[in-house]
Amino acid sequence: MDTKDILRKAFDGERINEQECLQLLSYNDLLELGEVANEVRFRHNPYEVVTFVVDSNPNYTNVCNVDCTFCAFYRKKDDPDAYTYSIDELIKKFKESANRGITTILLQGGVNPDLPFEYYLELVEKTRKEVPEIHPHFFTTSEIIGMSEVSGLSIREVLIKLKEVGLNTIPGGGAEILSDRVRKKISKKKGPSSSWLDVMREAHLLGYKTTATMMFGHIETNEDIIIHLSSIRKLQDETKGFTAFIPWSFKPENTPLEKHIKTYSSPYRYLQIIAVSRIFLDNFPHIQASWFSEGKKIGQVALHFGADDFGGTLEEENVHAAANFINRSTKDEVIELIHGAGFDAAQRDTLYNILKVYHKKPVAQST
Amino acid sequence: MIHFRDKNLIPIWEKLQSGIELTFEDGITLYGSNDILSIGKMAHWLQREKVGDAVFFVVNQKIEPTNICVLSCKFCDFAVKKTSPEAYEMTIEEILSKLNDELMEVHITGGLHPDWEWDYYVGMVKEIKKHFPKIDVKAFTAVEIDFFSKKFKKSIEDILLELKEAGLRTLPGGGAEIFSERVRRSLFNQKIGAKRWLEIHKIAHSLGIKSNATMLYGHVETFEERVNHLLKLRDLQKETNGFLSFIPLAFQPGDTGIKMRNQFTSAIDDLRTIAISRLILNNFDHIKAYWIMLTEELAAVALNFGANDLDGTVGGERIAHDAGAITPMQLAKNKLINIINDANKIPVERDIYYRPLKLYSEKIVGKVSYINTLPFFQNLNFNNYKIFTAPPRQLGFLFKEGFIDAGIISLVDYLEKESDYRLLKYGIVGNKNVKSVILYSKVPLEQLNKKCIAVSDETSTSFRLMQAILELKQGFDLNYIREKISYRKTNLSHFDAFLTIGDDALKFMNNKPEQFKYHYDLAQLWYEWKSLPFVFAVWTVKNTLSESQCEEINQLLENSLKKFFDGKIEIEKFHLSNLKLSSGEIADYLNNLTYRIGVDEIKSINIFREIYDQLKMSNKNIMNLIERF
Lengths: 367, 629
Ligand code: SF4
Ligand code: SF4
Known about the structure:
Number of helices of chain B: 26
Largest sheet of chain B: 7 strands, parallel
Structural class of chain A: alpha/beta
CATH architecture of chain A: Alpha-Beta Barrel
Number of strands of chain B: 23
Helix content of chain B: 40-55%
Strand content of chain A: 5-15%
Strand content of chain B: 15-25%
CATH superfamily of the largest domain in chain B: Aldolase class I
Distance between the termini of chain A: 44 Å
Distance between the termini of chain B: 39 Å
Oligomer: heterodimer
CATH topology of chain A: TIM Barrel
Bound molecules: iron/sulfur cluster
CATH superfamily of chain A: Aldolase class I
Number of domains of chain B: 3
Order of helices and strands of chain A: HHHEEHEHEHHEHHEHEHEHHEHHEE
Shape of chain A: globular
Strand order of the largest sheet of chain A: 9-1-10-11
Radius of gyration of chain B: 26 Å
CATH architecture of the largest domain in chain B: Alpha-Beta Barrel
Largest sheet of chain A: 4 strands, mixed
Number of helices of chain A: 15
Number of strands of chain A: 11
Number of domains of chain A: 1
Largest interface: A-B, 38 and 43 residues
CATH class of chain A: Alpha Beta
C-alpha cells in the first residue's frame, strides 16, 4: 500500500498492521507522520492538556549481576562505589521527598542477589505505612525475576505478595527492545523478550497497572522495533494493563556498547518513533515524552508529534547522570516547559488521575 | 494536503498556494495558533518549492576583534569597558592566525572600540584578502558601519565603498534586534534603530554589497513587533533584492538580567518563528537555523519547519557562548553534515553567495529549477531520493563533479560526462521553437558582429547553442559577459544584446524590454539551420544503476508525463504568480515543448556534440567570456 494511504487509514481511525507500520518507520516526511500522530493523540486525549507527575527516581542499589552492555549504572558487589541502601535510609529519603511535594517514587535498582525477598516486601509495606503521601512505583521486571530467583517463588507468587503489601503499579523499564535477536546481544542475562512480557502479563492479570518502555538507537533495526511494538500492542489487547508507552534513545557514553555505536540517535528519529508509536499503539491511553533523555526542547516538540504526557519531574536521576547526561528539572520548570509548548499542564498521579491543572497564559502575547 | 487542526489557518494556506503575500493580520493569526504542525507543513512546503531538499552550510570562522565597546546594551553580556580585566584587542596578525586555507568565509563583528583608527578596519579586510584570497569577508554590522561613519566623519557610502574596495563581500545581519522603538528605548537606547539599520542595508545593496538580516526574539517584544519586523524586511527586499538570508536569533538570557538565566525560548516558539519567517518573507531565498543558539537537536528539526541553512562551522562564537548557549563552541563540518542528513535533507557546502560547492548525500536527483521540468516532477514520487534543485549551469557544475545520481541535466554538461552516465528516454526538447531561450538584441542579428552580449549566468547549453549559431554559422567575433538577468533589472542597457533562459525568459514574455527590439528564439534558429529539434536537457542516470533500475525510472517518468498531460493541464497558482503568466499561457508553453528523446533528437544531439567539440577547441571563446558576480 502507498504510504499516503496508510497514513490516511490511520487518520481515519483504522488500525494499521505490522507491515504498514514498518513502512511508516522508513517514511521520511516527518511532519506528515506528526500530523497523523497528533490526530490520534487528540482522539485519545481531546484536551490541549499535557500531564506530568511530581516524582523522584532514586536507586536503592547499583549492584547488579545482569551485565547489560548498554548500562553505565551498575557495579559489581566489590567495586568501591557499589552501594545498597537500607530500608530505613530509603524511608528517610522518601519522607524528605514527600515533604517536597513528591507524590510518586519510581524506584529501580540493579539485580542484587544478596538482597532477600523480605527486603522488597518490607520496603513496600513501610513505604505505604510510613509515607502514605507517596505512591510506590517500584521494581522493573528484571528485579521481579530476581526476587523470584532468590525466594524460589513463582513470578505470580512474588507479584501477589508484593500486591498484598501495597504495590499496584510497576515501571516499564527493562523492556529495551523486545526482540530476541537484539536482547541476546545487549542484555543476554535478562532473558528473552517473553520474560519481560510474561511478568507484565501476570502483573496486569493481578490488577497492576504498568508502563512500557523502549530503548532504541543502538543495534536494532526497524524490524526489531516493529516486533517490540507489536508484542506490547498484543498484550495490551489482552490485558488493558498498560497506562503509557515511553520510548527513549540510547545514550552510548560510558557504556560497553559505546564502541559499537558511534552516533547518537537523531532527534528526527526520536520524533519519528514517538509519532509512529502513537499511530500504531492505538490501544495505549498515553505516550510519554522523555525530556530527560532527549533534552527539554525536543521533549517540547514531541508534544506536537503524538506525546501527551511529559513524564516526571525526576528529582534524582542516577541512571542517566552516570552517562554524563545530567538533566534535572523541577516542577515549576516542567510546568513552564509544557506551557511553552502551548498546552495546559496537569499534575497527575501514577494512575493518571488528574490532581491539579495549571493553565497556560492566554496566547497572542509574547513569552 | 494539510489537515488543519486550527481552521483559522486555512485562508492563509490558500493565499500561500496562490503566491499571495501574507499580511500583518496573517502574521498575528499564525503566532496566535497552537497548530504548530500545520504551520510547519506550510513552511516546509514553501521551503521545498524554493530550494528542494537542499540545506546549506559554509565552512566559516567567526572573528570578534575586540570586546571593548562604547555602548552597553542591556541584553549584551559580551561587551566590556577598556579597563575591565576581561577586555581584549586583537592585532591583524592575531586575526590572521585564526584563519586557514580550508575556510570559505570569515564573519567579523565586534565591539565599538573607542580608539581604533579607520585604517585598522580597512587594513584588516585587505590583509585577510591578501593572505587568504579564497576567503570571502563578511564583516561589520550596520551598528558598526554607523559608528564608523560618525567616528571617522565619512558618509555611509564612502565607508562601504572603501571596505568593498578592500575586499569586503557582504554585511552580516546583526544589530537589527527588533524593529520597535519601544523595545529599543528599554533595552538598547544608544543603539541605532530600525530606520538607520534599514537605510544602511539599502545603501549597501545599492553598492552591490549583499547582506543578511536578523531578528532577536524571546525577550520583551510582542508578537506584533515581530511581525512588523518581518514586514519591514520584506519591504526592503522588494526594493533591493539584496538580502541573502534571514536569521531569527533566540535571545540567550545568560547574566543579562532581562530574564532568568535558564529561561530559554520554548522550542515551539523557536520553530514557529522560523516557520512564520519563512512564510512572511516570501522574497527571501534562505532562512537560517542558527544551531549555536537553538541547540543542534532543535536546529535539525527546524530543517523541516522552513529553515534551509545551518550557518556554518563558525569557530569562536563569543557573544552567544558567554551568554550561556549550551552547544559546544565548534561543531565539525561532519557534524553539520550528519544533522542535515538525519533530517532527510541534502547537505550543501556553499560559498558566501549560496553557490553550491559540494553535496554530501547519497541518492540525489537533480532538477532544473524551471517550470518546464514540472511535467516530470509534479506527479513524480521518487521514494528514497532527495531532490536538488538549481538552475542548469549550477546543476551541471555539481553533476560534472559526480554529486548527482540521476536527473534532468543540461545537454552540454551531460556530454562532458557521457562515459559515466546513461541516457534515459526523456528530456526537454524545443521543436521548431522553445519560447524560453531568447536572444534579445538592439540590432538585427546580422549586425551583431563585434558586439558585446550579456549571457544569463544560469545557462550551460543555451550559451553554447548561441555561440554555434553566431560564431560558426554567422562567423561573428563576439564578447560575452555573464550577468544575472532579470526582467526587473534595468542595467542591461549598456549591452548590445542579452541571452535569457528558463523562467526569466518567460517573465520577459509579457514585459518585453523596450530597447531590445529584436528577439530570436534559439531553437527556431537551430531548426532553420539543421531542420531538427533541439535538445536542451536530458534525463540521465549514473552508470552504476542497473538496467532494471533505469527501466523503473523511465516508467516513473512516463507515468508522470501521462498524468500531467492527461486532460486539462493543472498548474498550481503559486507558479502563475511567480511567472506573471496566465495558466493558459503556461499550458501553451509546456504543450509546445516535447519531453521524449526519439530518433530525431538523437540525431540532433550527435550533430551538436561535434559542434560543441569544435567550440571547445577554440580558446578564444573562453577568453571572451568574462565571469562577473
Ligand atoms: S540495566 Fe538494569 S539489569 Fe541491566 S545491568 Fe543495568 S542495572 Fe542491571
Ligand atoms: S550589543 Fe554590540 S553595540 Fe551593544 S554593547 Fe554589545 S557589542 Fe556593544
